[in-house]
Amino acid sequence: MVSADLWLVVGLGNPGPSYAGNRHNVGFMVLDALAARVGGKFKAHRSRAEVIEGRLAGTRVILAKPRSYMNESGGPVKGLRDFYKVPVERLVVVHDELDIPYGAVRLKQGGGDNGHNGLRSITKSLADKDYLRVRFGVGRPPGRMDPAAFVLKDFSGTERKDLDLDVDRAADAVEALMAQGLAAAQNTFHAS
């Protein structure tokens, strides 16, 4: 039986302290901000993820951070979706996005992976690309830097000045998406 009133919000990142401040881990950072709002602590789940069950935006939610590396996120996400029986239209994936300026937040449903290995893995595992996405802009790499190397570097000192506020704004976007729907949340967060 599908859990029609339950949301699954997954933040993407790589496990371990050496990756904690990387641009690629901003999905984990947003989930940590949401966890603080729920007032819970992440606990191991058999789907190879850390989860918190709680309430956000007046509804039931599972917050999750896969314990796999980014490019293997699909297995844990599919495991969570199957375990909790969450329909794809209530699955939200929070991730970094190179093609959006630093700190900007964009929301969409479906689409391609745009070279993002975490999204590619999820789409392949689910055999469905119509899940919701909250995309946190990390900007393009400087000069000729390889994008893969860029996302595995920590945020710059300049970026870190506003990082907490920007992460909170992305967490606000997740709550708006759950409470108001995609179009209303886009109107709010794409305007700025």
From TrEMBL:
BP GO terms, sorted: protein quality control for misfolded or incompletely synthesized proteins; rescue of stalled ribosome
- EC main class here is hydrolase
Cellular compartment(s): Cytoplasm
Domain of life, per lineage: Bacteria
GO cellular component: a single term: cytoplasm
Enumerate the catalysed reactions: an N-acyl-L-alpha-aminoacyl-tRNA + H2O = an N-acyl-L-amino acid + a tRNA + H(+)
Keyword Ion transport on entry: no
Pinpoint the site Discriminates between blocked and unblocked aminoacyl-tRNA: 14
Role of this protein: Catalyzes the release of premature peptidyl moieties from peptidyl-tRNA molecules trapped in stalled 50S ribosomal subunits, and thus maintains levels of free tRNAs and 50S ribosomes.
Protein's name in the database: Peptidyl-tRNA hydrolase
Per the UniProt record, the source organism is Actinomadura barringtoniae
Per the record, the gene is pth
